[in-house]
């Protein structure tokens, strides 16, 4: 990973983005003996916008890597069932206890803790390098092939040259855009306002979705506070602000009355952040020398909280298919195509389900105070075995990936 020119970094693989897909792939490749550089735009991983749900499929990957027990020593909450309050009805929707996985629960772990954990284990391999405060500003293209990335840092600007460049830099991917890859956009009827409210022991443990009076909110238990996602119609934020903060507080309390004594914690609009929802998918995930994975290849709706876990499954599949070929320098364009073929089916199925739920549930809920729970959904309360279906879709997905890469002895890195 060295060069005579300090502004040029060379590696077998360069990964743009230190999110779940990028960090997991960087770790798996380094573990398999591949020289890999991961570029993270920020100085650390601490951001409120990162999702916290580590699903059973990801926990299974951690088990296969021998890291599960260590990982679960991190502060976390375990969600074994998913339910929601819909008007006067409580719907028990998913029960993870029957999944064919080591862990039969979703672990709620701040994503910065998850990423720090993976980065710490990756640094034990001499073949791994993480460069923070490294903003990708362009791609290096030679003879119609992507040969690396142009990077802006706090010091010198860098060129990171690699046999394979991975775009794992999220739904606003610079790599994808600079490489000219075309997306198919599916749209979304809603955005999300993201904020936190204090949690009391009397609130209970259940992670809830709540629908009332034409409003919808998701509440994630983060121990001493609730991370709240309040759904709004797309483009509605300015109208909400015009009605005023006090009205917004009342709207929140009308959906979740038990936090009515805490909505005053929202003193102004600053802690209320807009998350723009989008669903899209690249038509082609690769070019010679380049592959996109995770949100850079397929931005997911927050429905089900599955985006992180699909990204990690992408990383596992990518390592399984490419690690040995990278070590032998025999990777071909057909190998990159194999990654897309492997991961496109679960992506299409998940996004198709998300679009269906957006159009047939969320669109009908928002602004409709007369929305009632459809009678077929009431069967989930009467027939508990039905809860296994959404548990399987959310907890494992449409195609689970398992770690097949070998582990090398490249430990005790001095980087």
Features:
415 residues; 11 helices; eight-stranded mixed β-sheet; alpha+beta; seven-stranded mixed β-sheet; 20 strands; FAD/NAD(P)-binding domain; 32% helix
Strand content: 25-35%
Radius of gyration: 22 Å
Count of folded domains? 2
User: Helix amount, in percent?
Assistant: 25-40%
Number of DSSP E strands: 20
Question: What do we call the CATH topology of the largest domain?
Answer: FAD/NAD(P)-binding domain
Enumerate the spans where pLDDT stays under 50 for 5 or more consecutive residues: none
Summed over residues and divided by their number, the pLDDT gives a mean of: 91
Which secondary-structure class do the elements indicate? alpha+beta
CATH superfamily of the largest domain: FAD/NAD(P)-binding domain
- Second CATH tier, the architecture of the largest domain: 3-Layer(bba) Sandwich
Structural topology:
Elements: E1 8-16, H1 20-31, E2 36-39, E3 53-54, H2 56-64, H3 68-71, E4 77-79, E5 81-86, E6 89-95, E7 106-108, H4 111-122, E8 128-131, E9 134-142, E10 145-153, E11 158-167, H5 174-178, E12 183-185, E13 190-198, E14 208-212, E15 215-221, E16 225-233, H6 237-243, H7 245-255, E17 273-275, E18 280-282, E19 286-287, E20 290-292, H8 307-328, H9 333-365, H10 375-382, H11 388-395
Parallel strand pairs: 1-2, 1-11, 2-8, 5-14, 11-20
Antiparallel strand pairs: 3-7, 4-7, 5-6, 9-10, 10-11, 12-18, 13-16, 13-17, 14-15, 15-16, 19-20
């Amino acid at each position: 990973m060295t060069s005579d020119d300090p502004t040029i970094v060379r590696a077998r693989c360069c990964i743009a983005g230190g999110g779940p897909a990028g960090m997991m792939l960087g770790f798996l490749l380094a573990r398999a003996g591949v020289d890999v550089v991961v570029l993270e735009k920020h100085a650390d991983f601490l951001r409120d916008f990162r999702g916290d749900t580590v699903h059973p499929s990801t926990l299974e990957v951690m088990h296969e890597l021998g890291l599960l027990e260590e990982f679960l020593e991190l502060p976390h909450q375990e969600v074994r069932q998913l339910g929601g309050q819909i008007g006067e009805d409580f719907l028990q929707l998913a029960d993870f206890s029957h999944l064919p996985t080591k862990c039969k629960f979703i672990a709620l772990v701040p994503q910065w803790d998850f990423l720090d954990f993976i980065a710490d284990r990756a640094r034990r391999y001499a073949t791994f390098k993480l460069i923070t405060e490294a903003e990708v500003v362009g791609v290096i293209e030679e003879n119609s092939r992507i040969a690396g990335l142009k990077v802006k840092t706090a010091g010198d600007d860098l060129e990171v040259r690699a046999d394979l460049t991975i775009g794992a830099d999220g739904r606003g991917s610079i790599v994808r855009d600079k490489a000219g890859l075309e997306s198919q956009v599916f749209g979304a009827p809603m955005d999300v306002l993201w904020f936190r409210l204090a949690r009391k022991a009397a609130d209970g443990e259940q992670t809830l979705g709540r629908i009332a009076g034409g409003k919808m909110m998701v509440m994630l238990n983060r121990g001493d506070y609730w991370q709240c996602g309040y759904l709004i119609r797309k483009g509605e934020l300015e109208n909400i602000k015009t009605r005023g903060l006090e009205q917004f507080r009342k709207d929140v309390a009308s959906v979740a009355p038990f936090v009515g004594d805490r909505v005053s914690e929202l003193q102004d609009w600053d802690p209320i952040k807009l998350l723009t929802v989008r669903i899209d998918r690249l038509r082609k995930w690769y070019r010679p020398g380049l592959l996109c994975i995770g949100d850079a290849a397929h931005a997911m709706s927050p429905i089900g909280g599955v985006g992180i876990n699909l990204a990690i499954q992408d990383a596992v599949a990518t390592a399984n298919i490419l690690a040995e070929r990278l070590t032998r320098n025999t990777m071909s364009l057909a190998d990159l195509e194999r990654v897309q073929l492997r991961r496109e089916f679960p992506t299409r199925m998940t996004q198709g389900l998300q679009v269906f739920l957006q159009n047939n549930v969320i669109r009908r809920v928002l602004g409709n105070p007369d929305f009632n729970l459809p009678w077929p959904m009431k069967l989930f309360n009467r027939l508990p075995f039905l809860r296994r279906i959404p548990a399987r879709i959310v907890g494992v997905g449409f195609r689970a990936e398992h770690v097949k890469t070998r582990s090398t002895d490249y430990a005790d890195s001095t980087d």
